[in-house]
């Protein structure tokens, strides 16, 4: 499988290192995306509905909301990567994740539907990043006030999911 070089400091917002550092430093980030998806599915499969729609604490998201958030964030970062990959230099705004979650209706959806959507988005992301050559992967632009390279978006997608996977394991199980 193709290897993707880890992004360097300056290719991402300072906060993003917390996600990038979660991704193994072996360049096999697309393989990790596939494996991460299966880990998430295995973790939530067969869980009672009550567990999936109950936050771990007041003001926290439910498991269904977290998975919807992971899907939304992956879409946003893939879109940013596509724009910059195509040499679109338009500065991109951030997004308010809490508003997205509040309007996701995740708790009213079945877990099967949420996982089906996450799977579709993941397959599209993998296909998108596979289409980029090494030159394209280093292209970048401004997003939410910070530089973002195409390869950094890829690593942030993978690390962001791992962050939430570990959080679910620690706080909900």
Automatic annotation (TrEMBL):
Residue spans crossing the bilayer: none
Domain DinB-like: 33-165
SUPFAM superfamilies assigned to the protein according to its UniProt record, in alphabetical order: DinB/YfiT-like putative metalloenzymes
InterPro entries for the chain: DinB-like, DinB/YfiT-like
Protein name as annotated: DinB-like domain-containing protein
Source organism of the structure: Dictyobacter kobayashii
């Amino acid at each position: 499988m193709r290897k993707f070089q880890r992004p360097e400091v300056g290719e991402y917002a300072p906060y993003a290192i917390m996600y990038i550092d979660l991704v193994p430093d072996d360049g096999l980030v697309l393989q990790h995306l596939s494996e991460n998806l299966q880990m998430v599915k295995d973790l939530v499969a067969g869980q009672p509905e009550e567990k999936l729609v109950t936050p771990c604490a007041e003001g926290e998201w439910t498991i269904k909301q977290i998975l919807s958030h992971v899907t939304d964030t992956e879409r946003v970062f893939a879109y940013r990567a596509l724009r910059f990959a195509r040499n679109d230099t338009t500065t991109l705004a951030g997004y308010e994740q809490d508003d997205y979650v509040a309007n996701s209706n995740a708790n009213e959806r079945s877990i099967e539907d949420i996982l089906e959507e996450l799977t579709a988005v993941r397959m599209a992301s993998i296909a998108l990043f596979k289409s980029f050559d090494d030159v394209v992967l280093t292209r970048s632009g401004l997003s939410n006030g910070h530089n973002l390279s195409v390869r950094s978006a890829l690593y942030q997608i993978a690390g962001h999911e791992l962050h939430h996977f570990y959080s679910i394991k620690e706080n909900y199980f």
